[in-house]
Amino acid sequence: MSSDKNFVEFIVDQIENAGEISFRKMFGEYGVYSGGKLFGLICDNKLFIKPTVSGRTFIGDIIEAPPYPGAKTSFLIEDKIEDREWLSELVRITVKELPDPKPKKRKK
């Protein structure tokens, strides 16, 4: 089941002061970005955040699950998606710890 675009837009609208937040459709689901860094996925109308040490400490009681079969586990965010301040802080913490995206190689 693919995610509902309204759910994706709701999640993006919840996040503030965490850089320019955008999303991109990927394989029927969505990748969520801050300043070009992929920090999360939305699959089956569920929010998954890339795991980081600081994010783990911030969340505390973590639920980890793969966003799709065969994927690495991520932090599954369920109960706090309507808590704008908490979710925004988690995104800021996560993005700060993630490496910058690698430059794309030019085609020859």
UniProtKB/TrEMBL annotation:
Pfam families recorded: TfoX_N
InterPro entries per the UniProt record, alphabetical: TfoX_N
Residues of the TfoX N-terminal domain: 13-96
Record's protein name: Competence protein TfoX
Species this chain originates from: Maribellus comscasis
